Structures are given as structure tokens and as C-alpha cells.
Amino acid sequence: MSKDLFALVIGGTGMLEKVCHFLAIEGYDVYVVHRDKTRFQAMQSRSTHPDKLFSIRVDYHDEKTLQKKIQETIQIKGCCPDIIVSWIHNSAPNALPTILKEVSVRKKPWKLIHVQGSSSFFVKENTTVPEVCEYRRVYLGFVLENENARWLTHEEIANGIIKVIHGDYKETVIGTLKPWNKRPS
Ligand SMILES: NC(=O)c1ccc[n+]([C@@H]2O[C@H](COP(=O)([O-])OP(=O)(O)OC[C@H]3O[C@@H](n4cnc5c(N)ncnc54)[C@H](OP(=O)(O)O)[C@@H]3O)[C@@H](O)[C@H]2O)c1
Fold first, then answer.
1. If we measure between CA atoms, which residue out of 54, 121, 67 comes closest to residue 96?
2. What CATH class has 5-140?
């Protein structure tokens, strides 16, 4: 049974790659939910701590397999994650609840960094989390430069999320969401 800190990053091979590298440097064993093997291997090759990055290869729309993979990972680690960073597309509304159900046995406080797209800000969905979960919500906004709008870069997104982890902010917008009618097309 490992005593290392345990992080689960859903969608970690994309814009959250730098967050995975950061967590690995911070001493976490980082388990990354993704589908593409080559993309994961490329990410691992860019890490200074490749031995701290672990693949959980599953399509998160497939709830049964997702549940099984999370159960197996918890069994290997002998505990539930200390932190989960979640970037899940809206097409898989049951993925996060499936994962949360599996980690709900944890009694010690842990953090969920829930990353959501711009449009979720206006919906303000109510995410049900276990009692000991310290819920942190991050909305991805856009950048307005001299009246020109653009979406956030991966670097800006990852840096913003690392800042949230450091500062333990409850609700954060990376970039801006206002004025909404000026958002990029
Ligand atoms: N401002 C905003 O509101 C906003 C919102 C959304 C996106 N964006 C921008 O749009 C860009 C694209 O976003 P993105 O999410 O496509 O890119 P991404 O973060 O580069 O990739 C998505 C991540 O989720 C994983 N993933 C996707 N579908 C999955 C599935 N069904 N099962 C398991 N893992 C899955 C991917 O792994 P695999 O490739 O291995 O499947 C990858 O790790 C981002 O770069 C971001 O800048 C902006």
C-alpha cells in the first residue's frame, strides 16, 4: 500500500497536462483518466516525474467500466484520492457522480477541483458531493484584449487551476465571462 499522496485527474492529457506535472512534482501519484494511449505516453515523456503518472484508460461515457477502473485504482492505492481535478464534457453527466460514489467512503477531507466551461456559469448546477469533500469550482472564461476576444490557452487554464489549488479558492473564473456578448465565436 502506497503512502504517497493520491491525485485523480479526469481529462488530464489535454489542457490539464501541466496540472498533472505540477501535482507529480508536489509528490502526488497522479492517475489520469483518458482514452488515447499515445497522448498519455507523450505527456509522460514531457514529465520530470514520469513514474508518478499513471494511466486510467477508459471512455468516461461508459459508466460501468469507469466505475470498475476507479474501484481497481482505489484498491491498488489502498485509499481514495486526496484530490480530484475533473474536466468532463457535458456529454457525460453521469461520469463525475459515478466517481464520487466510489470515493464517498473516504472519511478524511479531500478536495474536488471541478472545472467547467463558460456556459455552465449561467446554469450554476448543483453538484452533490460527499460531506467531507471540499468543493472548489473553476469556470473557464475567455480573454478580452483591446476589444478582441479569444478563448483561454492551455497554459492560462492550467496556471489558473494551479493557482486555485495553491490558494484554495472556492469559486474562480479563469479569464472573464463579462461581457458575455463579447465572447469569442
Ligand atoms: N472557455 C471555455 O469555456 C472552454 C470550454 C471548453 C474548452 N475550452 C477550450 O477548448 C479546448 C478543447 O477542450 P477539450 O476538452 O476538447 O480538450 P482537452 O482538454 O485538450 O482534452 C480533453 C481531455 O479529456 C479527455 N477526454 C475527452 N473525452 C473523454 C472521454 N470520453 N473519456 C475519457 N477521457 C476523455 C482527453 O483524453 P483523450 O484525448 O485520451 O480522450 C483529454 O485528456 C481546450 O483547449 C480549451 O482551451 C474552453
1. 67
2. alpha beta
